[in-house]
């Protein structure tokens, strides 16, 4: 083992349905779930996320059988929330979260990735609400996220990790810092997605070094700087930006992943680092070779 490989022994690498162009529970343009499981294992990954709820089997016994047969384990589930709308949306939110949290727990995972709702539709680009939160909405967002962290922890034994995401209200360095400063570290951690953070102008290494104790999970991806510049200049919504190839195969884009992994390794924590290359929609034969090359690249970095 090289010294570099030994240095990243606290980071567990995985992948996700997202890297196979899967954004929805059911879509004819997406690869069947059996093919995803076959290929993610063949590409050299041991850990996966559940992806959109309903894409993979939701019966824990069936899913355990399917993943175990391929040597795979689940690292996290994912939920979408609009908690800045306040207590009025709590019951609807909890019904959605509880179903996914139960499956996540049954699969032996410890994390629930929480993605804030989009201010414009990721498929159509239709503006759904103001892109800037009011002070009251910020209070709702922070207090209701803390409530979610408490409830998910108490009822399911899971840790929530909030995912800053393009075209949501938790996106830029300023908004991510405001969110972290406004929430309790014991209840709310961050899922740092290196691609989304770069997409929104942030520096992942700086964030890890500044808020290290809040980093609970990583998504590894890169953006193509030239396409990103066009996307920003023309205010292209996230979905069409992905279709243009704004998220690219490493190591062709930014940020460089080895410094991110090195900064994460210096934290006093074991972390999942899940590869997520947004590619919806994409030809069914495209994801596997990219996933295989990406796994090889990360091994060359020592991960």
Automatic annotation (TrEMBL):
It holds the Pfam family AP_endonuc_2. Residues 37-286 form the Xylose isomerase-like TIM barrel domain. InterPro entries: IolE/XylAMocC-like (IPR050312), Xyl_isomerase-like_sf (IPR036237), Xyl_isomerase-like_TIM-brl (IPR013022). PANTHER family: HYDROXYPYRUVATE ISOMERASE, INOSOSE DEHYDRATASE. This is Inosose dehydratase.
